[in-house]
Amino acid sequence: MQAQQIGVGHPEIKRVLDLQRNATTNPDRLFVAEGLWAHNVLLEAGVGIETFLWCPEAGYSDEARLRVEQVAERAYRSYRISEKTLARIAERERPDGLVSVARLPRWDPADVSLGDPALVLVADAVEIPGNLGTLLRTLDACRGDCLVLTNRRVRLTHPKVFRGSQGMSVRVPTIELPGPAEAVEWLGERGFAVFLADTDGARHYRRTPYGRRTALVVGSERYGISPQWYEHGFDRVAVPMLGRADSLNVSVSASILLYEIRAQQDRW
Whole-prediction pTM value? Predict the structure, then answer.
């Protein structure tokens, strides 16, 4: 690939570092993708690539070298960087010499396509980027339709969200609504039965009948689901705790519940 060589003082390198640190406003929904697997996701999903950075000395595989031309053709701008610069900006130890700044897709709440049956996960005030990424990965794995964010505490563009989701943050439709009231209205207009993942006053998740259109709400790692969700009389479901711990990690709990809902919907 013929491209200008840039170093650590270049503005594009500063932008990558700012995005990696989640240290700046991000109205354009930009995120950093590192390595071969991440760039395969970008290409397969047709994601817009703003800047592609390529370090030839760090391209360890034939496939990585093959992807260089494909990514460069898609990118708005491309540069070559040294191994020293790559080590400065990359969070992965061996990112195959490929780093890109890409643009996260936008989904309009009015236009999200829902299947039959339909499964939606609502993440209310989830605070840990890795958990949000895992929720997206799980939602994709069980063929969920959409992630709804309410009381957002972490950006979808956080680098740990993309990595934790294994790139599914660019594939799973995700909409952000200000709070529970707007989410309840959106779900109600589309005929969803809503269930709250909770341990207090909850039904056993295996003994609960779920509908053809079901939304599961999970909450903050520290405080749980916001009080406003409880004002609507939604049923609560729980995974029984058989040991001494009083609860599961939010992503683990959601995984169990989402698969049970999907199993009932598809009559496994």
Answer: 0.92
Q: What three-state secondary structure class fits 195? A: strand
More confident residue, 262 or 240: 262
135-150 pLDDT, tens digit each? 999 999 999 999 999 9
Strand partners, 236: 196
pLDDT in tens, 203-260: 999 999 999 999 999 998 888 899 999 999 999 999 988 888 877 889 999 999 999 9
Domain ranges of the chain: 4-103, 118-266
50 in Cβ contact with 103 (< 8 Å): yes
CATH of 118-266, one of 3.80.30.20, 3.80.10.10, 3.40.1280.10, 3.40.190.10: 3.40.1280.10
Question: In this structure, what are the phi and psi dihedrals at residue 198, rounded to the nearest 5 degrees?
Answer: -150, 160
12 in the Ramachandran plot: left (φ > 0), alpha (ψ -120 to 50) or beta?
A: alpha
Buried b (16+ CB within 10 A) or exposed e, 22-48: beeebeeebbbbbbbebbbbbeeeebb
Contacts of 171 (CB under 8 A, 6+ apart): 41, 45, 140
Q: Tell me yes or no: is domain 4-103 CATH 1.25.10.10.
A: no
